[in-house]
Design a protein that fits this description.
Layout: H1 11-31, E1 35-36, E2 43-50, H2 56-65, E3 72-75, E4 81-85, H3 90-104, E5 107-115, H4 117-145, H5 148-171, E6 175-176, H6 178-206, H7 214-246, H8 252-285
Parallel strand pairs: 1-6
Antiparallel strand pairs: 2-4, 2-5, 3-4
């Protein structure tokens, strides 16, 4: 059975849902901010090579026993481990290495250093530059391929997706590290694809209807794109959930942010982007005919 829904007629309800989520995120950001990891604050990073095999769970327990609960552990291809902890004094670092050696045997410290907040500032700056370039290039591409109104609607919907991810992470105080920035940029690129599919359907149908049938055209275009959008999103979510529950802890933040972004992106592609285009188009035409 083909999906049928009066998306345009109920667009104000969808707008309200999105505004409530984003406002809740803004309030959360104002009062509690994001739970920044050491990539954005400060902490110690060590790369350690053990002579014998080490179980990551036991390694994490050893760190916790030394007051370093919540430390990040990443196993590298060469068998060494990256340990990211809160900021350590020289004595604390020596005590930790002693505890690791007592538990797991001889080890070689390949790198040890302090990650300062300046690195986090550089990450934020790089992310802002990348996001700005992405917005400009997408505006140019969508305007060239479709029209400026599609570009504006698409970019607004993309910011909706990114803000939704940030809102969830702020409200639930999920830890944010450098992979979170990568996830936001990936969500930004992933979501535009779904929106362009719906926009392309709208453009094809524009030649078949009159101006006063614009609401029905948008609803029909969304219905025609619904199965494809849902199949793509569900397939992506299955993979992301598998990685979330069975993958390593080092990718968990990235995968979780991506999963939230895919859900938000699918919702905005069907319920936000096209209705925004409809409202812009109706205002431009000076046509205030309500959707049926």
């Amino acid at each position: 059975m083909k999906f049928q829904a009066n998306i345009v007629g109920k667009r104000k309800l969808f707008y309200i849902v999105s505004v409530v989520l984003i406002l809740a995120g803004m309030v959360s950001m104002l009062f509690q901010g994001l739970n920044l990891g050491i990539d954005f604050t400060s902490g110690n990073k060590m790369i350690v090579q053990f002579e014998q095999d080490v179980n990551i769970a036991e390694l994490r327990n050893t760190l916790a026993e030394n007051g370093l609960t919540g430390s990040k552990i990443q196993e590298l291809d060469n068998g060494s481990y990256v340990l990211k902890t809160s900021e350590l004094t020289q004595d604390m670092e020596e005590a930790l290495l002693g505890a690791l050696e007592a538990k797991f045997g001889a080890l070689d410290v390949q790198f040890s250093g302090l990650i300062g907040p300046s690195i986090g500032a550089e990450l934020k700056k790089s992310a802002a530059i990348a996001l700005t370039l992405a917005v400009i290039l997408m505006l140019c591409y969508i305007t060239f391929r479709f029209e400026l109104h599609f570009a504006i609607a698409g970019i607004l919907a993309l910011f909706h997706d990114v803000l939704a991810v940030v809102a969830v992470f702020s409200i639930f105080q999920l830890e944010v590290d450098s992979t979170f920035i990568a996830a936001l940029l990936t969500v930004f690129g992933y979501s535009i694809n779904d929106k362009i599919v719906v926009f392309d359907r709208i453009r094809e149908n524009l030649t078949k209807v009159r101006k006063d049938e614009l609401a029905d055209l948008v609803n029909t275009s969304i219905a025609q794109s619904f199965t494809r959008s849902m199949n793509t999103s569900i397939s992506t979510l299955i993979l992301l959930l598998a990685l979330l529950f069975f993958g390593g802890t080092t990718t968990r933040i990235f995968v979780l942010a991506m999963a939230i972004g895919v859900v938000a992106g699918t919702y905005s592609s069907l319920c936000i982007a096209s209705p925004i285009w409809y409202d812009i188009k109706m205002k431009q035409k000076g046509n205030h005919v309500e959707a049926k």
